[in-house]
């Protein structure tokens, strides 16, 4: 038959359908060849990171051993073994005094003299052994101590030979005094900063911070409480501190108690003459300094720490250009340096000894004449 016809009498066309399965043939991006290349890349990266880890985790000797293990040189090569024999010339019978095949043990005498321990209490000190009597001990070459030229024998040097070791040297008095001065200065600076912070941190005393001056002087740590215009610490002509001065001294007192050094208190006035009768600025400045001392001792400061209480009147103004300035009326509390006190005591002792040695009786070397005898009754 030529084929079926449809109702209209026309011939029906033939439809051909082709199906492709994935993975067959070289289907462009859907193939599996890229997986092989990616696996090779991952393997190479793993080997690279493994190599980097080995380089970082091994020592130089271990890396040299690994390089020798993978070296293509022959086992019998001179370059790889070092002796031209397998395994560097070593065998299984190298160790052992009775079975070793590397030759007999040889004992050779060294160039250094033998050492023997001394009866000294220090077990680390050794002295050289006595030489035979036939040798000339007066020769400079024979008396030469190898410890002086060999640094490895410094710990074996006898006492009195060679320079002293710096680690065992005792500090000199000057070095001790310098270290004490350094520590004392550091303590003073720390106390000064703490006082400033305490005054600034107190709202009731924040306005008084400008009337407080703290500095370092050759005598020690100086703390000055000064008057301001219309803000005095003492009433005019009075030696009684007001509430402002009391509050400021009570804030400073605890920090003074922490320092062990002696304290000096001095009072100052301006150039205005004292208006009352029977008193001058000398008495007024001394009374104000003494009132400050009583206030500090009542707050807990040991009275034995007060070295001096002095009044200077208007002789040492803070502002020499303005003798009537309010800042010239002040109280100065000085924490004295221990080094200064020790030097003062030593100088006084030396001066007293010099005065006693220069007395007329001691210079002439003659005894003083006895007092005249009392007349007989």
Architecture overview:
The chain is α+β, with helices and mostly antiparallel strands and 377 residues long. It has a domain at 176-343: OmpA-like domain (60s Ribosomal Protein L30, Chain: A), CATH 3.30.1330.60. The protein is built from eight helices and seven strands; from the N terminus they run H-H-H-E-E-H-E-E-H-E-H-E-E-H-H. It has a five-stranded mixed β-sheet with strand order 3-4-7-5-6. The protein has a two-stranded antiparallel ribbon with strand order 1-2. The radius of gyration is 50 Å and the shape is elongated.
Quick take:
The protein is α+β, with helices and mostly antiparallel strands. The chain is 34% helix and 10% strand.
Main sheet characteristics: 5 strands, mixed
Number of strands: 7
Helix and strand string, N-terminal first? Answer: HHHEEHEEHEHEEHH
CATH architecture of one domain: 2-Layer Sandwich
Highest CATH level, the class of one domain:
Alpha Beta
First-last Cα distance: 197 Å
Q: How many helical elements?
A: 8
Strand content: 5-15%
Find the structural class using helix and strand composition.
alpha+beta
Low-confidence stretches: 75-84, 125-148, 151-165, 359-368, 373-377
What's the CATH H-level superfamily name of one domain? OmpA-like domain
Q: Could you give the topology of this structure?
A:
Layout: H1 33-57, H2 60-69, H3 78-81, E1 115-117, E2 126-128, H4 173-201, E3 212-217, E4 220-226, H5 243-258, E5 263-268, H6 281-298, E6 306-311, E7 330-336, H7 338-357, H8 360-364
Parallel strand pairs: 5-6
Antiparallel strand pairs: 1-2, 3-4, 4-7, 5-7
